Automatic annotation (TrEMBL):
Organism: Actinoallomurus oryzae
Keyword vocabulary terms for this entry: Acyltransferase, Transferase
Residues annotated as domain N-acetyltransferase: 2-176
Renumbered residue ranges of the record's region Disordered: 233-256
Pfam families reported in the protein's UniProt record: Acetyltransf_1
Entry keyword Transferase: yes
Protein name: N-acetyltransferase domain-containing protein
Length: 256
């Protein structure tokens, strides 16, 4: 199963490689979209703001996308920008994964994620001259809004769709893999999908647990992130965390 998580600074080179490979592919086909490519000064700040996702197949980066609550003021009106919307950009997949449905599934996952986070609308802008891309969006559930003509911009074909939950897309990626000890990309409240005994569960990164909790398998010393799933608690290796009967319950710290 592919994994998806917010990109961190160490992922910058991989994100740029995916984006610039797509830029070259478009240029080779006579499309001027992304013609100048991308540099760290443009993508780095998006990663710092946790607006970039990266998809891996094992250890291989295979896709990336950006999602922001801030829309482009060149394209969207002030009334539209005041609405509860998420704006997608820079969605791309590795060229050797093209034609397998990965891009479509990634778009669906992003829409589902928006719905799970209480967003009403998901929007994007497309290169005005890329008619094939416009057709693709309309065929995969996006509604054409209008084309915003700006002399200094080549994008501006606007599309949107209602944010709706999509269980199939949600399960298509293992979100974040496993919360890692002292890893700043995870925090209490983050939602994850994780595997226990070959079956997938939904969970929430709850807090840290201390020495009054032990794991059913050997694990590193506390503090550590723990996933809460129903009445069960699991460590970063997806092993259940339990409170020994001989010790008093002090509960999970940091949840309130």
């Amino acid at each position: 199963m592919n994994t998806i998580r917010p990109a961190i600074a160490d992922d910058l080179d991989d994100v740029l490689a995916l984006l610039n490979a797509s830029s070259r592919w478009l240029s080779d086909r006579g499309l001027d979209q992304w013609g100048n490519g991308f540099g760290p000064d443009r993508i780095g700040p998006l990663i710092d703001r946790r607006e970039v996702y990266i998809v891996h197949d094992g250890d291989t980066p295979v896709a990336t996308a950006a999602a922001s609550a801030d829309g482009d003021t060149d394209f969207w009106t002030s009334d539209e920008l005041a609405e509860n919307a998420l704006y997608l950009s820079k969605v791309t997949i590795a060229r050797d994964r093209a034609g397998r449905g990965l891009g479509t599934t990634l778009f669906r996952w992003l829409v589902d994620q928006a719905a799970r986070n209480g967003v009403d609308l998901v929007r994007l802008d497309a290169w005005r001259t890329n008619r094939n891309l416009h057709d693709y969006y309309e065929q995969t559930g996006w509604s054409y809004v209008r084309t915003a003509e700006r002399k200094h911009r080549r994008s501006g074909a606007l599309f949107q769709r209602v944010a709706e939950r999509d269980e199939e897309a949600w399960m298509a990626f293992l979100y974040t893999g496993t919360p890692l000890n002292t890893d700043a990309r995870y925090a209490p409240g983050d939602r994850v999908i994780f595997s226990v005994g070959g079956r997938y569960r939904e969970g929430v990164v709850a807090a840290t647990y201390g020495l009054d909790w032990t794991c059913e398998m050997p694990t590193a010393s506390a503090p550590m992130y723990v996933i809460q799933s129903g009445s069960g608690r699991y460590d970063r290796s997806h092993h259940q965390v339990r409170r020994p009967a001989a010790r008093p319950a002090r509960g999970l710290r940091g949840t309130g």
